[in-house]
Amino acid sequence: MNREERELRKEAEALMRQLTLEEKVGMVHGAELFRTAPVERLGIPALTMSDGPMGVRQEFEPASWKCVGNHDDYVTYLPCNSALASTWNRELARLTGEVLGAEARGRGKDVILGPGVNIKRSPLCGRNFEYFSEDPFLTKEMAVPYIQGVQNWDVAACVKHFAANNQETQRLWVDVKIDERALREIYLPAFHDAVRKGNSYTVMGAYNKIYTEHCCQSGFLLNQILRKEWGYEGVVVSDWGGVHDTQAAAFSGLDIEMSVTDNFDGYYMAEPLRKMVEEGKIPEEVVDEKVVHILMLMKRLHMLDGKRKSGTYNAPKHRQAALDVARESVVLLKNARGRLPLSPEKTKEILVVGENADWMHAPGGGSAEIKALYEVTPLMGIKMLLGGNTKVSYVKGYCQDPKEEAQGAQDKNWQADSLKDGGGTKGAHSSSEALTQYRRLLREEAVTKAKGFEQVIFIGGLNHEQDCEGNDRADMKLPYEQDCLIEELLEVNPDTVIVLVGGSPVEMGRWIGRAGSVLWSWYAGMEGGNALAEVLFGKTNPSGKLPESFYKSPMDCPAHIWGNFGEKETADYAEGVFVGYRYLDAYHVEPEFCFGHGLSYTSFAYGQVELVKENGKVYVDCQIANTGGMDGKEAVQIYLAPKGRTEEEPVRQLKGFGKIFLKSGEEKKLRIEIEGYSENMEVWAGSSLNDIRVRAVERI
Ligand code: BGC
């Protein structure tokens, strides 16, 4: 702790000493669904929180999951964290954080409940879209600037969910069985850097258990690792309903208990806590320490000194930021016959097929739902770009299952009942004869129409029925019979461009061999449709790269081969550190598209790559040239590979990356800092995991 921090602590302690036990207890639990109690007598305000992470969530009534329903809480809808990670651009992570921080402050929030930094252990996890990557290095490198951006606005980031919350199935009580090495090498680094480098003022505990303890009251995670090893003095907030025992919570490093129910005085850290302190079962100092953390946070955020920054929301530059991120997040998976980009001038008419072309994703996903000021759909983006001179026809081609209950409906939100069910698995929905028949008609209409068009663009994929809090997918299949539709479209028009939108990979085996051009778009925010249109028509050169392995099927994923994930009380992380590409590499399994993959409309040549040691740091200097016909950006990836590897070690691991813009014909040197280098490692620079271009040589 430095002098400034010591001073801060002293001031917080002095203020804490003026509080009664009742006032202190009021500060350590929710007095509303997203707020603690203030102490007006001493001018201590309530702490106001909101979700995250794609924007600031709509307003709810204080004590019910009923939306207030006013028109003053529409916000900037940012690309999801998977999209952000796909940019491999730390500056865009910072920018995203800045927008979120400014909007949270503008909406009067103190804590924004994000970013989510859980590792994508399985492609089936329903909340993967909220997370960055399967790789700890990429995750932390994006999370740190994001957090710094948020906190620049006197708003606290809340890095979540600590820790090993990698599935929704049984999420409220599944006990994670993991060896400590895997925990520390794969699942904890992002949290470590979020608090140590990003200085995240708050951390959210996870719902699940680890080593039999619930994470929100875990002595091991919160006391031993977070507080003791990492010296964390920030505030730990529970996930909503993640606390299960007053004593365990009190003696753990948890500071604030939040939940989804309205019996606020009955929360474990409310009246039951006060009673136990009065009965001498819990020393009052335990509560004091929590209050000190909260007061330190309030001081850090300038909540007590009148010197707080003001923010704003829906600023034009926020929308520009959403567009900047969306542009770099689109991944060109395949462009075999070079059909992309399409020429706006030469395209006189096109047919767009697919429900996702005309679907708005903002209001779905669970607590990450967004009441977006607007959302440009792909179809709108395409029409806006083409400007009226190209005739754009649209047919749905497929449809989702009819909704049982509209999410985010005015009267009640799913979250009210979220503790009643531990979280499950969602497979294909109803496939009634009538629905199958209707889909057949939609498909026939699309395929018949496609015969008459020179250019067809299919835009399908997933939506927040699959990518959603509280459920994992049962499989990786494209829902709603889209595979059939794609096959039939390719049959009548082999040059059909396939665009998939989603938060997690899908199986493509049935048609990928025949498809010429395939683009992947994540939930890319309010400007996503514009960004996609720009990529389709060459106004933006794609530079997104996959932040995770796109498996051919879930049975290529070690979490499902060796570990378990299903309806059991324990999740066995038997794969250890061999998560994602670490497994594929070591066991020679081919994914559909590898980690780090993403094509460009131009080409990049890698020249000499040199290892440089300066002031105790290790860098790689890469000479990169744009050898193609279009300006573009390249995300250069550095993998470290142990020489003479043992079986326990991954073949190689991402330990550095950098993104560079080069005009057509231009050549530049890019310096990339790398982590964890030692003499017995080879340094590989590549355009993706499976497209390694050069091995570094040490500069003499
Ligand atoms: C989620 C958290 C979220 C909280 C508050 C929980 O259901 O797991 O990520 O921040 O609700 O909405």
Architecture overview:
It contains 18 helices and 27 strands. The protein is 27% helix and 19% strand. The relative contact order is 0.12. Helix 1 (3-16) packs across helix 11. The strands form 7 sheets. Strands 11-18-17-15-12-13 form a 6-stranded mixed beta sheet, with helices on both faces. The two termini are 40 Å apart. With 700 residues, it is α/β, with parallel strands linked by helices. A hairpin with a 2-residue loop joins strand 25 and strand 26 (691-695). The structure holds beta-D-glucopyranose. Residues 51, 113, 160, 239-240, 367, 418 line the site of beta-D-glucopyranose (BGC).
Q: In brief, what are we looking at here?
A:
This protein is an alpha/beta fold and 700 residues long. It is built from 18 helices and 27 strands.
Low-confidence stretches: none
Largest beta sheet: strand ordering: 11-18-17-15-12-13
Bound molecules: beta-D-glucopyranose
* Shape assignment: globular
Index terms:
globular, 5-stranded parallel β-sheet, 700 residues, alpha/beta, 27 strands, 18 helices, binds beta-D-glucopyranose
